[in-house]
Here is the input.
Amino acid sequence: MNPLLSRLQPYPFERLRRLFADVTPSPAHRAISLGIGEPKHATPQMLKDALAASLDTGLTGYPATAGEPGLREACAGWLQRRYGVSVHPGTQVLPVNGSREALFAFAQTVLDPSKPGATLAFPNPFYQIYEGAALLGGAEPYYVPSVPARNFAADWASVPEAVWQRTQMIYVCSPGNPTGAVMPLSEWETLFALSDRYGFVIASDECYSEIYFRDEPPLGGLEAAVRLGRHDFRNLVMFTSLSKRSNVPGLRSGFVAGDAALIKAFLLYRTYHGGAMSPAVQAASVAAWGDEAHVIDNRRQYREKFAAVTPLLAEVLDVALPDAAFYLWAGVPAGFAGRLPGLSADEVFARELLAQYNVTVLPGSYLAREAGGTNPGAGRVRMALVAEPAECLEAAHRIVDFCRAHA
Here is the structure.
């Protein structure tokens, strides 16, 4: 067996299963899960129609790894409309089977473990695929400290020069998981300068870009590059997906775009890896990327949910409306600390909430690693407001009752 497999940490949901192994959920309440970020809004009919219409011809041949020209053009067209960014569909865009597999596979393309101290850096807390990609790519993960006072923004200035010198790649996530924070242009400028100085690649995870709560949509990595005069997108690739934008997590469709040299190398990797997208999925994806009406309605539904739920939870938890994404990143009351031996406050909160009110939330410490003596997720929980509004509101009322009962 590959010895690097032994370095992988248990996935957060496996840890959650173990945490709840001896918990009996309250039988007086129906189960509500805010634990996993799986979109539950209805899939747009036009997307399902496009998928069905393609089945007669879309399953009869092997698809090209590079995807059909029509899909690459649809992706490039969306980038132009959304960000004002021009890319060449044939050399700077590549369809992928969802951003998750692409984020992982891209690191295997970029990393060179033969170089001493090969390092992959990313913010802490983080999407767990980043760490797994580093470890299985033969690199050392570096957990960039976050600053709670700045909505857990990554403190890139704290990274020692010795770490930058051996860093081959970084992941950024904007809007962020789990905090929903959006990177400003000044932060991009800092990262581009560091990339130029040390030569590392920037992988920008932007799968939550279309769910936001401010008037101005989140800034994208390619958009930031253009604003700063970096029209070749050197050492920059962005990743996006239809899962959240169009409520099709089961479709497994997204794309990457950016530096043509990196896209070329990634295409070579994927040719052997077997990363081609089904023609039927491609047909549905073309329809999805070409339509904004369903995206606007989807965003409206999230805005209404967050407007109803956030003020309620803010009465009992340290929580505020995020910039974007569909998570609330909430600090739990101090009274949950030290209540059960060996468990953090966020773990105790999650266990007792399930037992007493049958609501599932994810302990924040499961989304981070201890670095410098601190786990930045400890004492917080992530709540995914992905269900229908009434269910999310009911969960919020239960959490309020639970916190007040333990005040």
Observations:
- The longest strand covers residues 167-173.
- The mean pLDDT is 96.
- Residues 293-314 form the longest helix (22 residues).
